[in-house]
Design brief:
It holds the Pfam family p450. By secondary structure, the protein is mostly helical. It has helices at 14-29, 38-59, 67-82, 92-109, 128-153, 163-176, 186-217, 219-232, 248-260, 293-297, 340-357, and strands spanning 270-271, 276-278, 281-283, 288-289, 358-361, 374-375, 379-380, 387-390. The termini are far apart.
Length: 392
């Protein structure tokens, strides 16, 4: 579906390397992985907190669905970097785009539409999930192409606003230099923006939702995380990335949820660039290889009691954070997630800020939450509601 373009599914080679290098350098210029991006993340968090306060007052103790608020705040961070704008959480068109994105990722893997990868002509079938997938793709395409067109019409090469502007400037520069066959085209830009928009929204949103779901399922751990935040940060200032090293149990809790719910369980498909012998098996050149990150994170040979939620496994005897090479929620190698640092920043700031301000619990008389999730291209938690009360 991505026509072998973009960042996520494009084949490895000189074009992919050039495009990824440009995107990574440009995003870093706009704050990716740096403390300068913290205010952008906190801006979205302020909206979430205000809205949760309001919902708490009007709900009368009933459960609320956190997903729309979380996904909007997360998406606005990547949108500010690549599209130069933020969207209000009540923006109907943007809310529709986020919902379509979730549905599209689910269809791609968890339905007969997965067969498109083997029989591409199935994409054109006029019924069922095949028709729905085309509709989802068409709506997201129209949304993103309108934004690219607006950037093209308002472009000021002396004052780039975001990655889209920088890409258009690079594209024009290569055209002026007479570089024929350049991979920097508006068509390629579209697939890059689509990859970054979807990858930068869905994965982190699901990770935050998983963490909060585990907090309501294990209130004792929630208490311990909040006690650590109170001790280090207090109640009167917002947590900062500079607090990260002083909150090892909070960090360990985030990592343990990521281990159990690895958000892209089968990573992304790779391909053998040459025929390889591995442990007695011959893997021919061109073979698609799917790394099973889920199995790595649940491997009993490297994790004690791997199916049990235990944040302490990431702490040493002195309570300091342990780094384990078998913990790879962002993948490894040359195609490791480009947004790893951004995701870590968002997860830390969102989890600490929300747990500092609120107590989360399950509504009364509700069954235990489903911790299996919904499997698509990413692993999302099933819809759930929580009661949110200010901690004072």
């Amino acid at each position: 579906m991505t026509k072998r373009k973009g960042i996520v599914f494009a084949p490895y080679g000189p074009v992919w390397r050039k495009q990824r290098k440009f995107c990574h350098a440009t995003l870093r210029n706009f704050g990716l992985g740096r403390l300068s991006l913290e205010p952008c993340i906190l801006q979205g968090l302020a909206t979430i907190k205000t809205e949760l306060q309001r919902l708490n007052e009007v709900s009368g103790g009933a459960g609320v669905d956190l997903a729309p608020l979380i996904s909007n705040a997360v998406s606005n961070v990547i949108c500010s970097l690549i599209l130069g704008q933020r969207f209000h959480h009540e923006d109907h068109e943007f809310r529709t785009m986020l919902d379509l994105m979730v549905r599209g990722l689910e269809i791609c893997i968890n339905s007969p539409a997965v067969l498109i990868n083997i029989f591409p002509l199935l994409y054109y079938l006029p019924f069922g999930v095949f028709k729905e997938l085309r509709q989802v793709e068409g709506d997201i395409t129209a949304f993103l192409k309108r934004i690219i067109a607006n950037h093209r019409e308002t472009l000021d090469p002396a004052n780039p606003r975001d990655l889209t502007d920088m890409y258009l400037i690079e594209m024009l520069a290569q055209q002026s230099a007479g570089e024929e066959g350049s991979s920097f085209t508006e068509d390629y830009l579209f697939y890059i923006i689509g990859d970054l928009f979807i990858a930068g929204t869905d994965t982190t949103t699901n990770s935050v939702l998983w963490i909060l779901l585990y907090m309501v399922s294990h209130p004792d751990i929630q208490d311990e995380v909040q006690a650590e935040i109170d001790k280090v940060v207090g109640r009167h200032r917002v947590p900062s990335l500079t607090d990260k090293g002083s909150l090892p149990f909070t960090e360990a809790t985030i990592m343990e949820v990521q281990r159990l719910t690895v958000v892209v369980p089968l990573a992304i498909p790779h391909m053998a660039s040459e025929t390889t012998e591995f442990r007695g098996y011959t893997i021919p050149k061109g073979t698609v290889v799917v790394p099973n990150l889920w199995s790595v994170h649940r491997d009993p040979t490297v994790w004690d009691d791997p199916d049990t939620f235990n944040p302490a496994r990431f702490l040493d005897d002195e309570g300091k954070l342990l780094r384990k090479e078998c913990f790879i929620p962002f993948g490894i190698g040359r195609r490791v997630c480009m947004g790893e640092q951004l995701a870590k920043m968002e997860l830390f700031l969102m989890v600490t800020s929300l747990l500092q301000a609120f107590r989360f619990r399950l509504p009364e008389r509700t069954p235990p939450p489903n911790l299996q999730g919904r499997f698509g291209l990413t692993l999302a938690p099933c819809s759930y509601s929580v009661c949110v009360s200010p901690r004072g």
